[in-house]
Amino acid sequence: MGYLGATHAACMAELGFEVIGLDVDQTKIDSLSRGELPFHEPGLPELLRKHVSNGLLRFTTSYEEVGAWADIHFIGVGTPQTPGDNAADLTYVDAATLSLAKHISKDAFIIGKSTVPVGTARRLKHLVASNKKPQVSIGFAWNPEFLREGFAVKDTLHPDRLVVGVDDERTENVLRSIYAAALENDTPFISTDFETAELVKVAANAFLATKISFINAFSEITETVGGDIRTLADAIGHDVRIGRRFLNAGVGFGGGCLPKDIRALQARVGELGLERSMRFLSEVDAINLRRRDRVVYLAEEMIGDFSGKKIAILGVTFKPDSDDVRDSPALDVAIRLFSSGAEVSVFDPQGNVNAAKRFPRLKYVDSTVQAVEDADLVVLLTEWAEFRNLMPQDIQELVAKRKIIDARNVLDVGIWQGSAWQIAALGHKFDSILVSDAEMTMS
Ligand code: UDX
Predict the structure, then answer these.
(1) How far is CA 108 from the centre of its chain?
(2) Which residue range(s) make up the domain with 340?
(3) What CATH number corresponds to the domain at position 296?
């Protein structure tokens, strides 16, 4: 009942199925049973409450209960990065599959949704076959999930494609009937083998990560020679073969999927003796991480030694409309500024609580106004709507110094310079921004 599982459970109930959500964490199950979602996802709390109260959706910690009751079992447990290693940690997906196999007591299907290294589904299918009760038949499939945080409900109910790795017709037919509503709307249904299904998911995320690092690599050039990274992205994006989406230059990608998926893919191809094939992904990762260094560098250029300086951080989540701070570039930068001696004041519309759990030593406040009070520097790190719409006059009487870094390329540089702010934006040459006309007029 993490992000994927809880979303899938509530959406299956929305489609009219009777659903039990299982998790080993009793606190999570208690909260979901009360209709309370333990994370932020627009539209999902409403679905959860609706189907908990109409009885279609309930929760349990008992494998015995689900094994005796359900016809279809979806596995959506996490496959996080192994600490100290690039590979995916398969402990949870293995444990969940084995527990299901042992407890299923009527004919049923197991459908894996977790993101797994290629080869896992075939191995788990054998694990199920050798651990199931002899009298039951269990169909097996892998059905990767492409939902985005912030759009999880829409992506689940109206996916842009359905991919299933399956090796028997009966299981494929069951999947077709589960997803009948989407299929009636002409959603592409790609039925393939286990390996392709597993690879589709990591290939999609590797491609998206590469696209982001591609534009960010060009940022490194425009930051040196001048030029406008947004115009560059717009111009190449008009070529439909390239497309404009995922070409937003900034502090880079984070979250629970892209970073760990490109690392797990490299680890997996390494095991297969194919490290060369995915070697470029280590460069994609490195470009991404260098964006964070760039923000810290710009901060130092703008305010010098951090000791005793006050820095306001706007946004700590890995992207807007989420409370997720896993591998968040924003939180990483905030911690680095703090660790270098700055007094750091953070405001995020949804992320303060999760960030404080991970790093309680930053000062977390409840509004932009509180964050920027007396600040020597403001750093916009996540492009929440309220930060995108920020205007100099909203905060300029509150700050100690009119200095701002736009690490997401969402502010109008001209407007801020026009109000005598020193503004640095990723993808823009810094010194041309530093000596703004407005600043020269002032002095
Ligand atoms: C991603 C995939 O999009 C989704 O299909 C998959 O199922 C899970 O992983 P998600 O982690 O929710 O979804 O985030 P996404 O919207 O892809 O953004 C990932 C990161 O890339 C964010 O940190 C975001 O800020 C960054 N990003 C995105 C950019 O830096 N520039 C862009 O142009 C787009």
Answers:
(1) 32
(2) 287-440
(3) 3.40.50.720
What pLDDT, on the 0 to 100 scale, is given for residue 238? 98
**pLDDT of amino acid 86:** 95
Residue 88 lies in a domain: yes
Give yes or no for residue 208 CB within 6 A of ligand 1: yes
Q: Please state the atom number of ligand 1 nearest to the C-alpha of residue 245.
A: 33
Q: Catalytic pick from 66, 257, 303, 331?
A: 257
Q: How many domains does the chain have?
A: 2
**Cα angle: 151, vertex 154, 159; to 5 degrees:** 110
**Does residue 96 contact residue 25 with C-beta atoms inside 8 Å?**
no
> 53 near 15, Cβ under 8 Å?
no
In a domain, 249, yes or no: no
Residue 281 CB contacts under 8 Å (≥ 6 apart), including other chains: 206, 209, 210, 262, 263, 265, 266
Domain shared by 14 and 157, yes or no: yes
Q: Find out whether the beta carbon of 269 lies less than 6 Å from any atom of ligand 1.
A: no
Nearest CA to ligand 1 atom 25: 319
Which among 162, 192, 222 is the end of a domain? 192
- Distance (angstroms) between ligand 1 centre and the Cα of 258 equals 7
Last residue of a domain, one of 174, 192, 210: 192
| Ranges of residues in the chain whose predicted pLDDT is under 50 | 435-443
Q: What is the pLDDT of residue 433?
A: 54
What is the reported pLDDT for 210? 98
**Would you state the pLDDT for residue 443?**
40
- What pLDDT is stored for residue 126 in this prediction? 98
pLDDT at res. 103 = 98
What is the reported pLDDT for 431? 72
For ligand 1, whether the C-beta of 250 sits within 6 Å is: yes
Residue-level pLDDT at 440: 45
Q: Do 281 and 266 form a contact (C-beta atoms < 8 A)? A: yes
- 257 noted as active-site residue: yes
